[in-house]
Amino acid sequence: MLWIHCAEEDAYLAVLDLAQRQIASRPGLHILITTVGPLRNQDHELPGAVTQCEICDDHPASVAAFLDHWAPDCCVWTWGGLRPNLILATAQRGCALFLVNADTAGFDGRRDRWLPDVARNLLPLFAAVMVRTPAAARRLMQLGLAKDDIAVTSALQAGGQALECNESDLSDLASACVGRAIWFANGVQKEELQTVLAAHRQALRLSHRLLLVLRPAGNLSPQDAMDEISKQGFRLLNWDDGNFPDETTQILLSEETRDIGLFYRVAPVSFLGGSLVAGREGVDPLEAAALGSAVLYGPRVGRHLQSYSRLASAGAARIINDSAALGMAVSRLVAPDQAAIMAHAGWDVISEGAALTDRITDLVQDTLDTQLGFR
Question: What is the CATH number of the domain that holds 334?
């Protein structure tokens, strides 16, 4: 059991990404993610091996009940907001503790100012301490940690999961579409279908062989999507029937989530659905960026706002508001040179926190190996 405490809600997506990385590194691993209070957005999809709950209060009885129930083997505590009784009891039970993503603000609370000795006694209990700013390092040195015991790293960032795909399908689809420009509309809602189809029609005027891969989601059923596409006169092929597109195919339809990674790989640009409609689940843009697809999106991105903002700031994503803007963006970005610039920017964003994630993963896996007698 790996316990990851997320003391700062803005880091939750990065923590969830870290958890998924740990699961991939060790089959059979269970992960508990604790938060200080209820999350503002509760619709995060958790992998089957991950449980999320609020942290217990710091009363000794609550702490004992918490640790008796979960019995963690290793704890990664992100940011600050240390809880003295919980940290001390966890260490006394032989659970390895790592403090990561620490920042000054996490150690300037009222408790820390009134009881500086508490922090001085707790910090040495962490086998590794990583801070995201030099100022945080100075703060922890003021609280008694030696400079050599503190590592200044990048901030913990979500890095996007590299979605898998069937390699033979990738090779065959690439062969079937050789020389053709492709764009992918992923997670299209019913209210967005007309916008996507109008954008495709506009883009076809400049790129006659352009292929749209469309995945309906949410309140848009595959049958409704097929009916509307056929009604508008597009030449349609259903990928889920096992067929490959030919030169005449204008739209390839698929509802299979398992092929999202395949389509991101063949499409240099992707529109991410749910972003033009309020209240929809939306799509994680880091998944597209991780596979080299430039991102187009609408203004309503909900729980993925932080990720979209990171990509947009780096030049890896562009916001659009209507079919005309989407069609123009697609027409420009299917050009290899334009897509490559955005794809490179996206890869830079994906790589930002990779070194820190790798470092934490090595610490966790080495610790679990030691406890299980593999070392």
Answer: 3.40.50.2000
